[in-house]
Design brief:
It is built from 13 helices and seven strands. By secondary structure, the protein is α/β, with parallel strands linked by helices.
């Protein structure tokens, strides 16, 4: 676990060594019946049955290799991280499980640790991840910079993740079920209306479109409406289109490159004050 890049992170919270080793202090064998669920668990989707069965088989053969993380609450322990390991251990018939006991000052820190653990294990779907960031931001007043520092990501990454929450519910559910990717979601957001977003989403599903293809379609919706013949001739230039596509991918919004032999200009569109702030954050982050 990359504790150094997480600021205070897990390293400063866990009583004991950074690496799990049941032969050293810091890891405690605790009764499974005394472990209760974390009310702030960022994961909302169900656990994959096949991978859960594989984990159960592994635990039956070799035990729990990586301890769970908990906070003590009188005679019980609140689960912070390790939901899959706990569930599999119960199904494997274990009565005890190894765990780190951590000291947490508030709910925000509990949420942060659970989110960090899930993100680093790459288990969260894009919407659950974004909703975790949103809770840290709204309920616990964490800035995007604070969140980025805590989870070891760039502020732009946090901003782009939060934008996915603006998608229609059906599309967010599809992201949660991993039918489409976060990249597809950002391409869909380039459409101006909910109807346009749903139209592109259905095309992505029905035609199994790549992210790049979805971006091309989203970008093409505006160029089709252009009445300027000079613009139509420009978009046929593959080099100009390539640069535009690169800018669209980086900025996550519609971009037009107006080019001539004497110079030109870059036109960046935004659709709300929040969207403008996001684009400005992206531009300010360029070193």
């Amino acid at each position: 676990m990359a504790a150094k890049r997480l600021g205070r992170g897990l390293e400063a919270l866990i009583h004991g060594p950074e690496k799990a080793d049941l032969g050293r202090p810091g890891v405690t064998e605790m009764p499974i019946e005394n472990i209760v669920a974390n009310p702030l668990q960022p994961r909302k989707d169900g656990l994959d049955e096949k991978s859960l069965e594989e984990l159960i088989a592994s635990i039956k053969q070799k035990g729990v290799i990586t301890p769970i993380t908990v906070q003590q609450d009188e005679d019980n322990f609140i689960l912070i991280a390790g939901e899959r390991r706990l569930r599999a251990s119960k199904l494997a018939g274990l009565k005890q499980i190894p765990g780190y006991v951590v000291t947490i000052s508030d709910e925000s820190e509990m949420m942060e640790i659970a989110l960090i653990e899930n993100i680093q294990r790459e288990n969260l779907n894009p919407i659950d991840e974004a909703e975790g960031y949103a809770i840290l931001q709204s309920k616990f007043n964490r800035s995007q910079s604070d969140i980025a520092s805590a989870v070891g990501k760039k502020r732009v990454t946090i901003s782009n993740a939060l934008r996915l929450l603006k998608l229609p519910s059906d599309i967010k559910n599809s992201l949660r079920d991993r039918k489409v990717s976060a990249g597809h979601g950002r391409a869909i957001l380039m459409m101006k209306t909910a109807a346009g977003m749903m139209k592109l989403y259905k095309m992505i599903i029905e035609e199994a479109l790549s992210v790049r293809a979805a971006e091309e379609i989203a970008k093409g919706q505006s160029t089709k409406k252009s009445k300027h013949t000079s613009r139509k001739s420009l978009v046929t230039n593959p080099q100009i289109r390539s640069v535009e596509n690169e800018l669209i991918t980086v900025l996550g919004t519609k971009v037009r490159l107006h080019y001539s032999k004497k110079g030109g200009k870059i036109e960046i569109q935004f659709f709300s004050d929040d969207d403008l702030d996001r684009v400005l954050d992206l531009l300010r982050s360029i070193e």
